[in-house]
Amino acid sequence: MSDSKLSAEHTVAARKAMETLWQEAHLKGRCWGPRNPSNRYAATNITIAIGDQLVSVSWRKGKLVIHEFVRTKNTLLGRRVKKVLQKHGLPT
């Protein structure tokens, strides 16, 4: 079985296992699908935020990997994103 198929199977199972957290989260997102020429940024992951904590679960090297983040303000990346959005006339 291909790694992308395993990735999808395991992240679907992980999403179901995280149902209670999913319902509690104020920010949630999912992305799935194998990388291909027309969708080179595709990945399989689950992202949730509760309070000032954000977790993203993805499949890498045969296992589920958990990336943990804590909300912060005034980061270099945040300033860059804001500048790009404003440059394109989007309200921030």
Topology:
Elements: H1 3-17, H2 19-24, E1 27-31, E2 45-50, E3 53-60, E4 63-70, H3 76-87
Antiparallel strand pairs: 1-2, 2-3, 3-4
What does this entry look like structurally?
There is one protein chain. By secondary structure, this protein is of the alpha+beta class. It contains three helices and four strands. It has helices at residues 3-17, 19-24, 76-87; strands at 27-31, 45-50, 53-60, 63-70. The chain has a four-stranded antiparallel β-sheet with strand order 1-2-3-4. The termini are far apart.
Largest sheet: 4 strands, antiparallel
SSE class: alpha+beta
- Give the tally of structural domains: 1
What letter string, H or E per element, gives the SSE order? HHEEEEH
In terms of DSSP E residues, the strand content is 25-35%
How far the N terminus sits from the C terminus, by CA atoms, comes to: 44 Å
Radius of gyration of CA atoms, rounded to a whole number: 16 Å
Number of strands: 4
Mean pLDDT metric: 85
Number of helices: 3
Helical residue percent band: 25-40%
Shape: globular
Stretches where pLDDT falls below 50 for ≥5 residues? none
- How do the strands of the widest beta sheet line up side by side? 1-2-3-4
Short descriptors:
alpha+beta; 3 helices; 4 strands; 36% helix
Outline of the structure:
This protein is 36% helix and 29% strand.
